[in-house]
UniProtKB/TrEMBL annotation:
It is found in: Cell membrane. Keywords: Cell membrane, Cell shape, Cell wall biogenesis/degradation, Membrane, Peptidoglycan synthesis, Transmembrane, Transmembrane helix. Belongs to the transpeptidase family. Pfam families: PBP_dimer, Transpeptidase. Its main location: membrane. Residues 1-21 are annotated as: Disordered. This is Peptidoglycan D,D-transpeptidase FtsI family protein. It comes from the Bacteria. The chain crosses the membrane at residues 30-53. Residues 71-307 form the Penicillin-binding protein dimerisation domain. It is a single-pass membrane protein. Residues 349-673 form the Penicillin-binding protein transpeptidase domain. Coiled coil: none annotated.
Length: 704
């Protein structure tokens, strides 16, 4: 019994924990110790970051990026030779938007809607995609559209947007209201801007009411500004516009084929840039330099400071050699001459040039559609329309023969007779139907426009001995010989004019099978040239043998403080391309022939109608047998200079594809052009002998 009691007592003692030590306080203390260590480590790390790197992190938070914001300036203007404005800048009140840094599309959406309540823009260029992008920028609309669609698990926001976009593109009922379209167009313009770049929301036609209302609420529309834009205008008429060229608009922006090149030069995508002719050729002069503003952007993408670094400078101005009053008259004369041509006539073109400097005083042209009779202005036809000119080239042919040595000033007489080779007969106009043969020298051959003489020169140059009726076995190198001399005068090569896009002319086949055409080439009835080339050729003869590149820009000038034409910054000097290797006696002989075309005594002289022009001129007329759409036509041309004894001006013109039988149209037009020149450009009182040009004077003044 006693033993039993003792066992129970011992069991009770163990259950109550009597002599056993508890493990719980130790474990809790250990955990508290670990937590304390972690707190110490955390506090230490925070102290470390604060003390050691605190300044650095603070600087990173507060650091700013400096960016340059640019603003466009006025483009340089274009003036005529007398200082009249040909191309100016018309100012327009405009609304622009300068995009901030990291601006969200939802922010621009709100601004576009706000601005749209005050400003009306054209929505004609708004695309369906732009309409949908605007519509889905509203978060609620985007969710509403997405609720109608099913998406794969884990679809991204971009994938969901693309599917919503596709859904609306296929929804024929989707349509924006008029006010929404207006806001969508504004939103599209704003979205297309780069950070800190400025784009026009509306660059013209902004009403006073729109200006006032927008001005009152500018603070509510970050980035929106009321400013000025410019567009090209032509206060003295648009006849000169085809020569000046065009400028891209803010809407069209940079030409797609040059966008990378222009961006590298500092242009923005929506900048205006010269697209053609002078506007393109002198882009670096006309563009000016943009205004620059230094913008500091904080780490939170807010603009903290703006400093005007450079106010910008308007582009420099071009002063042309062209007299605008005369240019307008010349264009009118050319158009009038073409309007009366009728038939298959395809155009009329004329160039007036200073033979001593290459300065183009006027260049005019019109194209005509023979089917409709519609006439359109095309002054550039003078440099890019290739025309078979006819006999005007004979001065160059004679000059080449003199340089080749197949004739000399004292031994140049040949018999004008029909040329028969290989069963083909070719003759001059005055003995083509059985007229008498006639002895002519170099000068009289030009006077009567002898085809036979020129063909004989071509055969002599090629070393071929002519025998009537025999086969024409001369080498095809005859083409190269003739063209080589023609090229020296500017026929068949680029003239070097300061306008892009000029033609080199057209060469007929030079193969052995076409050897007979080498004779046609000699009198201008094979290769085709531009009127500008003919003007350069005659200028080379007139000035004594110096081929000078034509130019339409006279000088580059600055702008005065009042906006008027400023001081000359640089002047275009005559550019000599080559000189003709002729002796003074050879030049004299050619000039005598051109003088006799107008003032000679031979019954067959071709320029008798020009003799009434005062001061007297020297000239070469041309008539080429041509074809247009299977119909036989004639092309009339003329190259001339005046006064004969002291050349001051060259007139060259061409009238292609007139009806057979047309006569003297070229000389009638030339008479009108000379009358206009002496009236509007140069007074005859400035000439040494304004009333009469003499044959001896023409011969003696070979250096112009």
């Amino acid at each position: 019994m006693k033993n039993f009691y003792n066992r129970v007592s011992n069991r009770n003692q163990r259950s109550s924990g009597g002599p056993s030590k508890s493990q719980i306080p130790f474990r809790l203390n250990f955990l508290f110790f670990i937590v304390a260590l972690l707190f110490v480590a955390l506090i230490g790390q925070l102290a470390y970051l604060q003390v050691i790197y605190g300044t650095k992190f603070k600087a990173e938070v507060n650091q700013t990026d400096t960016t340059i914001e640019t603003t466009n300036v006025q483009r340089g203007m274009v003036y005529d030779s007398n200082g009249k404005v040909l191309v100016g800048n018309k100012a327009h009140q405009a609304i622009s938007y300068t995009k901030g840094v990291n601006v969200l599309s939802t922010d621009m959406y709100k601004i576009a809607n706000r601005l749209g309540t005050y400003l009306t823009v054209s929505t004609s260029s708004l695309t369906p995609r732009q309409s949908i992008d605007y519509y889905l920028t509203d978060v609620n609309r985007l969710k509403a559209v997405e609720s109608k669609l099913s998406f794969p698990k884990g679809a991204t926001a971009t994938q969901k947007y693309d599917k919503a976009l596709s859904y609306l593109q296929g929804d024929s009922s989707f349509k924006l209201t008029k006010s929404q379209k207006n806001a969508a167009e504004i939103f599209a313009k704003m979205s297309g801007a780069y950070a800190l770049s400025t784009t026009y929301i509306k660059d013209s036609g902004v009403s006073s009411q729109e200006i006032a209302e927008i001005g009152e609420h500018l603070s509510e529309m970050p980035g929106i500004k009321v400013g000025t834009s410019w567009s090209r205008n032509y206060p003295n008429g648009t006849s000169i516009q085809s020569i000046i060229g065009t400028v891209s608009s803010e809407k069209t922006g940079l030409p797609s084929d040059k966008v990378n090149e222009l961006l590298a030069q500092g242009y923005s995508r929506n900048d205006s840039v010269g697209q053609s002719y002078l506007e393109q050729e002198y882009e670096s002069v006309l563009r000016g330099t943009k205004a620059e503003k230094q913008v500091e952007v904080a780490g939170n993408n807010t603009v903290t400071k703006e400093v005007q670094k450079y106010g910008g400078q308007k582009g420099d101005n071009l002063q042309l050699t062209i007299n605008s009053t005369f240019q307008s008259k010349l264009q009118s004369l050319v158009k009038s001459a073409e309007s009366g041509a009728g038939g298959n006539s395809t155009g009329t073109y004329a160039v007036v040039m200073n033979p001593n400097t290459g300065a183009v005083i006027g260049m005019a042209g019109v194209d005509r559609n023979p089917s409709t009779g519609k006439v359109t202005e095309n002054a550039l036809g003078t440099i890019n329309s290739d025309i078979v000119m006819g006999s005007v080239v004979k001065g160059a042919m004679v000059s080449g023969a003199l340089m080749k040595g197949v004739i000399t000033p004292t031994n140049s007489t040949l018999t004008d007779m029909p040329i028969t080779v290989g069963g083909v007969k070719k003759a001059s106009w005055f003995n083509a139907n059985g007229g008498a043969n006639m002895a002519v020298n170099a000068a009289s051959a030009l006077e009567v426009s002898s085809n036979s003489y020129m063909m004989q020169l071509a055969m002599k140059e090629a070393g071929f001995k002519y025998s009537s009726g025999a086969a024409l076995t001369m080498s095809s190198k005859a083409f190269d010989i003739e063209r080589g001399y023609f090229n020296q005068f500017g026929l068949g090569v680029k003239t070097g004019i300061d306008l892009p896009g000029e033609s080199t002319g057209l060469k007929g086949s030079s193969s052995r099978a076409h050897i007979g055409n080498a004779l046609d080439l000699a009198y201008g009835n094979y290769d085709a040239y531009t009127v500008m080339q003919v003007a350069q050729y005659m200028s080379t003869v007139a000035n004594g043998g110096t081929r000078i590149a034509p130019h339409v820009v006279q000088s580059i000038r600055g702008t005065k403080s009042d906006g008027s034409l400023g001081a000359v910054k640089s002047t275009v000097t005559p550019k000599v391309l080559n000189t003709i290797g002729m002796t003074e006696s050879e030049k004299k002989l050619v000039k005598e022939g051109l003088y006799d075309v107008v003032h000679g005594t031979n019954t067959y002289k071709t320029g008798a109608e020009l003799a009434s022009i005062s001061p007297g001129i020297s000239a070469k007329t041309g008539t080429a047998q041509t074809y247009y759409k299977g119909n036989e036509t004639v092309t009339l041309s003329l190259a001339s200079y005046a006064p004969s004894n002291d050349p001051q001006v060259v007139v060259a013109l061409a009238m292609p594809n007139l009806g057979v039988g047309a006569e003297d149209n070229n000389m009638k037009l030339a008479k009108s052009i000379y009358a206009a020149y002496w009236k509007y450009v140069q007074s005859t009182s400035t000439l040494t002998n304004p009333t009469k040009a003499t044959k001896s004077g023409a011969a003696q003044n070979t250096n112009g």
